[in-house]
Amino acid sequence: MKVLIVGGVAGGAGAAARLRRNDEFAKIVLLEKGPYISFANCGLPYYIGGEILDRAALQLQTPEAFRKRFQVDVRVCHEVTAVDTAAKMVSVLNHSTGEIYQESYDALVLSPGASPIRPKMPGMEDNAVFTLRNIPDTDAIYAHIAAAKPRTAAVIGGGFIGLEMAENLARRGLQVSVVEATPHVMANLDTDMAHAVHNRVRAAGMGLWLNRKVTGFTKDSVLLEDGTAVPADMVILSIGVAPETGFLRDSGIALGARGEILVDKQLRTSAPDVYALGDAATVENLVTGRQQRIPLAGPANKQARIVADVICGKEAAYKGNIGTSILKFYDLTAASAGESEASLRAAGTPYRKTITVSPSHASYYPGGTQMTVKLLYQDSGRLLGAQIVGGEGVDKRIDDLAIAIRFGLTVDDLAEMELAYAPPFSSAKDPVNMAGFVAQNALQGMFRHFYVEDVAHLPEDAVKIDVRNPRELQRLGGIPGFRNIPLDDLRDRLDEIDLTKKIYVTCQVGLRGYLACRILLQHGAADVYDLSGGFSFWSSMEKDRLGMEESGGKNIAVCGAQL
Question: Closest Cα partner for 480 from 502, 464, 499, 501?
């Protein structure tokens, strides 16, 4: 059996290694158009920033080592330019010699990956504009910083790579601005969860330009559609990736509207004996059932094993994934799994949501941080999505929630989930359990939520109560229009509250507000709502709003008392 593999990074190299473990005698040819295989894409920003010091560590395998260990015919700088599925042949361009030749196959694995989107804009040639996808890109950025010694940089695009590059360029001493064409960074997060990320970007001293499109460049700036010139001696374009499937256009292999390769559960394409995986191929979204492209390294590696097994006649199938992802930005961690509010609204899918704020470990054990957990679920309790923003322990909790979403668990399962507990690591009621408890209470009708985006639109004649203690209000500030009645005084001051009106309650994170709702409901109030996430979540939104109003996109420091 002769297997050709197109693309030698995570998916292609993984498929080759698994094929060899399955079949010692197969002829395996790995064709990679670049000079490197099996390199760590996700580690590239950290080498530029100096977190990773050894450049060689970015290469998990060299072509020579891979060839020797797995007996694979590795050909770097060999680009597949066309596929003839009828003749089972591919055309290959050897970039080192200029030779074009034909190569036959019994099975063909397509793992071409995706390339950064780089639109042509006026003045682009006047500035130093880079994208980051591979080791040559990394070398070019690293060398430019060393030689040109730029003082300012603009990162266009506030996704994973964009924010990671912003942090690492700042670590190299550059003054960095982040420009994002949509209203918030991190498309996997909803707007309310992105506020904390925006605040951290500004706190790092970076300029943040949201909802602004780039129209051109000068030698030392990026030009925005409103006429603003953002200082930039160099630019990183990070506005997304497109599947590298141009060579398949006349192959007869079915492609989607954006050039993605359509596959079934065995990762077979529409052509016999042709398989596809990784960033260029579609997968089933396990929450929605839709076919879509989810370009992440973890799924690509899993797909590689399955392709190799299917080719070798084993029973295997890729069931799909939910797009679990995580970002480190300085001391902030932002993570998500499954669907967002935005995607559920776009699909017309009904959902409920709760926001909880919990400590990363037992509050009496020193060094903990708060994490905000957003849960999206159906009336049945089935989980649809989760987002977390915080410090330590976010990675552990998003993994718990990703497993729950993937396997169709409910909020009741979260409440019952048995998770490891010791004071340095968690609380007896873990943040995941707490999210489940709150969602359970909401589904059982124990109380109702209102949300930070509702605060500005509450009825004028409604009763608005803040049940924190007076010292908290003095120290942290409060939401305008909310009257302070501390929780412990509430029962004694019920005569001050018109129980026939709508009542909106807030506290610091939502827990005391829930307790107040229970008291009020059982004393005759009919329409009571607790602010999901509490004052801390609202203040994050308000701080972001004030930051966006600050002219020039500069950092603004706003303490709670000023809110």
Answer: 464
pTM above 0.85, yes or no: yes
**CATH 3.50.50.60 at 124-239, yes or no:** yes
Catalytic residue status for 42? yes
Give the confidence band of 228 by pLDDT, cuts at 50, 70, 90: very high
325-444 is classed CATH 3.40.50.2000: no
Q: Residue 297 gets which letter from DSSP?
A: H
> Based on the number of CB atoms within 10 Å of its own CB, is 272 exposed (0-12), middle (13-18) or buried (19 or more)?
exposed
C-beta atoms surrounding 315 within 10 Å:
7
pLDDT at 551: 42
Q: From the candidates 42, 312, 507, 517, which is the catalytic residue?
A: 42
pLDDT digits (tens, 9 = 90+) for 254-281: 999 999 999 999 999 999 999 999 999 9
Task: Copy the structure tokens of residue 19.
Answer: 């094929």
pLDDT digits (tens, 9 = 90+) for 446-493: 999 999 999 999 999 999 999 999 999 999 999 999 999 999 999 999
Tokens of 356: 């909880």
Non-local (6+) Cβ contacts of 365 within 8 A are 423, 424
CATH number belonging to the domain at 449-545, selected among 3.40.50.300, 3.40.50.1820, 3.40.250.10, 2.60.40.10:
3.40.250.10
Helix (H, G, I), strand (E, B) or coil at 282: coil
**Do the first three CATH levels of 2-114+242-311 and 325-444 match, i.e. the same topology?**
yes
Q: What is the mean pLDDT of the chain?
A: 95
